[in-house]
C-alpha cells in the first residue's frame, strides 16, 4: 500500500481534539500544528504536508502519543513523514535528512557520535565546499571548551551497532 495511504489509515480514528497540539513542546515553531497536519493527511493534501516543516521539527518526545485520547502512534507518524521526505530526497528537507543520516552513520560505526567525524560526513553529503566555513567559529568555540574532541574519522564498513541497525530497519520495513 502507498505509504501516505497507510498513514491515512493509521490516523483515521483522529477526532481533531487538538490534544497533540496542546502537548507538543515544539508547536510554537511549527507552521502547521500537529492537529492540522493530521487533518492534511486525512484530506490527502500531500502538497500541504510536504510544504510544511512540522514533522521535521518533531523531536520525538512522545508527549502527543502518550496523551492522544484515540491512542494513535503520532510520534511514529511524524517519523514516517520524515522517512518519506528522505526517501524522496525532497529538496526542502535535504539539509535535515543529510544531517540526521550523517549523525546516525557515526553512531552506527562507534556506538556513539564522534562529533568531528559526524560533521565531516555531513559536509561531504552536502557537497558544498564553503559549508564548513559557516561552522568554523562554532567549532572553535566548542573545541576551546573541550566540548568537541578532534578525532580522525574511522574507516567506513563494519560498525559496532550493525546488528541493531539492521534489526531496526527490518522492523521499520514491516510497519
Ligand atoms: S490528540 Fe489524537 S485524536 Fe486528538 S487531534 Fe491529535 S491525533 Fe487527533
Ligand atoms: S513527539 Fe513530536 S509532535 Fe509529538 S509532542 Fe513530541 S515533538 Fe511534538
Give me the count of strands: 0
Largest sheet: none
In CATH, what is the homologous superfamily of the largest domain? Alpha-helical ferredoxin
SSE succession: HHHHHHHHHH
Q: What is the CATH topology assignment of the largest domain?
A: Fumarate Reductase Iron-sulfur Protein, Chain B, domain 2
> Taking Cα atoms only, what radius of gyration do you get, to the nearest Å?
18 Å
Inertia-based shape: globular
Number of domains: 2
Supply the helix-strand structural class: mainly alpha
Report the mean per-residue pLDDT as an integer.
90
Bound molecules: iron/sulfur cluster
Can I get a quick summary?
By secondary structure, the protein is an all-alpha fold.
Describe the structure.
This protein is mostly helical. The protein folds into 2 domains: 3-88, Alpha-helical ferredoxin (Fumarate Reductase Iron-sulfur Protein, Chain B, domain 2), CATH 1.10.1060; 93-174, no CATH class. It is 59% helix and 0% strand. It is built from 10 helices and no strands. The chain has helices spanning 3-11, 19-23, 34-42, 46-51, 63-67, 74-87, 94-110, 115-126, 131-144, 162-174. Helix 1 runs antiparallel to helix 6 and helix 7 runs antiparallel to helix 8. The longest helix is centred in the middle third of the chain and has 17 residues, at 94-110. 17% of the residues are buried. One iron/sulfur cluster is lined by residues 23-26, 34, 58-64, 74-75, 78.
Amino acid at each position: 500500500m502507498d505509504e501516505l495511504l497507510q498513514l491515512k489509515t493509521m490516523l483515521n480514528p483522529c477526532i481533531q481534539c487538538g490534544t497533540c497540539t496542546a502537548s507538543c513542546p515544539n508547536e510554537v515553531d511549527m507552521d502547521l500544528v500537529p492537529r492540522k497536519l493530521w487533518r492534511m493527511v486525512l484530506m490527502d493534501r500531500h502538497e500541504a504536508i510536504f510544504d510544511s516543516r512540522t514533522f521535521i521539527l518533531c523531536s520525538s518526545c512522545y508527549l502527543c502519543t502518550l496523551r492522544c485520547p484515540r491512542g494513535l502512534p503520532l510520534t511514529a507518524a511524524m517519523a514516517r513523514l520524515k522517512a518519506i521526505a528522505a526517501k524522496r530526497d525532497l529538496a526542502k528537507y535535504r539539509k535535515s535528512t543529510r544531517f540526521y543520516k550523517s549523525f546516525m552513520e557515526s553512531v552506527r560505526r562507534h556506538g556513539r557520535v564522534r562529533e568531528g567525524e559526524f560533521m565531516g560526513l555531513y559536509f561531504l553529503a552536502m557537497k558544498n565546499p564553503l559549508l564548513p566555513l559557516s561552522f568554523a567559529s562554532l567549532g572553535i568555540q566548542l573545541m576551546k571548551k573541550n566540548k568537541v574532541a578532534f578525532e580522525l574519522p574511522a574507516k567506513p564498513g563494519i560498525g559496532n551497532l550493525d546488528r541493531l541497525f539492521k534489526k531496526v530497519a527490518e522492523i521499520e520495513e514491516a510497519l
